[in-house]
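Self-study notes.
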Amino acid sequence: MRIISKYILILASFVLFNGQSLNASQQNTLTQRDSVIVNHLSNFKTALQERNPDAAIYYNRILNFLVSRSIKDSLLISDCYYYTGTYKYLQNEYDDAIDLLQNAINYRIASDTIDDTYAKARVNLGLSYHKTGKLELARVNLETALNIKEKIYGLESLDLSRTLLNLSAIYSDMNMHERALSFSLRGISLAESNPYEVNLGDLTGFYYNSGVSYLNILDYSRAERNFNLAYGIFQEAANIATEKLILLYNSLAVCNYELGNYETTKEYFIKGLRLIDSTGF
C-alpha cells in the first residue's frame, strides 16, 4: 500500500503593514512622483492584507508607474516589484509572479540591500517555481531565503518556520526524503522550544511532512507517531480542510497496515470514506 498523496503546506510569505517604513536617506531622496507611488503602495498593501478586490486597481497603477520608468528610488522600485509579484502569486499567475519577483530581487541586489524583503521575495519566487514544477529553482531560492533569514533573525527564530516547512515540501517532491526530514525535524525542534509562540498550522505541517518522510524511508513506527501528533492538533482545530483530514486518515491507515494493525487500518479507511461521502469531496 502507498500513500495516495501528501499534505504539503505551502504559504506565500509576504510583508504587509508591519511597521516597515522608508529609512531617512530614502525619504530625503524621494521625488514628488515617488511619493505618489509610496501612497499607492501603502494602499496596495492594505488591500492585499484585507483581500480587497481594490488590490487589482492598485496593482495596475503601480505597474503603469514601473513601465513608465518614472520612479527614481531603487528600493522603492524593488518594493513595487515585490508586492506586484506577490499579488500575481496569490492570483495563481505564477509566470508573471516569477518575472516581477526576480526584478524585485535584482533591484535589491543592485542597491546592495539584502534584507527581510529580499528574503521574502526569494521565498515567493521559490514558491512560484514550485507551482510551475521547477523544483531545482524552487529549492535554490528557498535555500537562499533561509540563509538570509538565519543571518537576520538567528538560527533559533520562529521566523524561519515557514521557509523550513516549504523546504521540507520541496525536498519531498524531489524524492530526497532524508533531506526533507531534516528540515521538518528542525522545524519541530524550533516549535517545541517556543511552545507559546508557535503557529499550530506550521507545527501540524512539520509533523505531517516528517511522517511522509519517515513513511518513504520505511520507518513506519515514527511515521505513525508523527501522523498521530498532527492528528491530535487537527482534532483541536475549529476548522479543518476536508482534503487535509482525508489525507491524514489515509496516511494513518497506510502506516498501521505496514505495522500489521489491520483493524486500526480499517477504522481509518472507514473514517476517510465516510468523510468523502458526507462532504461529496
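Second protein, same conventions, sequence then structure:
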Amino acid sequence: MVAATVVASAAEQTITIRDWTGRGFAPEVISYDVPSAGAWKLRVTGPNGSSLPVQIMAGATKARSVLLFPADLPKDATMTYKVSDSGKAGPAEVGIRSDGDTLVLTNTLLAVRVPRVQQRKGVAGRNLPAPIVAFQSSGGPWRGAGRMVVEWQWPAMPPVPARAALR
C-alpha cells in the first residue's frame, strides 16, 4: 500500500492505493494523517464515485487528526480515492443499540452482542458475563451463548530432591 498525506482544505486530494503483494486486501480501514483544522468536514469518495463513511480521530498532537475510511484492494489492482471538504457524507456502516442488559454492535457484515457492564471490582470470575454474548452474521440468526468459564488448575509438583551435608 502507498501512504500519502491529505490536507484538510477545499482542494480535492487524490489518494492512490496499489496492491504490490499480489494477493489483494478485503475491506480494510485506511488511515491518513490530516490537519485537525477542518478535518470534521472531510469527505471521501471511492473509485466508483460513491461517498464512503469516514471517521476522524485524534492524532499524535492537537494540530493533527487521523482520517479513517474503508477500502477494498483487489489483487494487483490500483484504486483511487478522492478526499475533499465538500460533498455528501457516506452511509453509516456501523451502529450501536441497546437490547436489554446488552449492547449490540453492528456493521454491514455482522453484529456482536456484548454485556452492557464490562467493569466490575471484587467479583469472582465465574460470576462475570462473557465478553461476547452472541454474534450474528449478515442478518442471520444469533449464534452462541457466551459464558465465562473459569477453572483453576495447579500443576502437579514433582518431589524436589534435596541434599544436606552436616560437618
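Instructor comment on the second fold: The chain has two domains: 13-84, 95-143.
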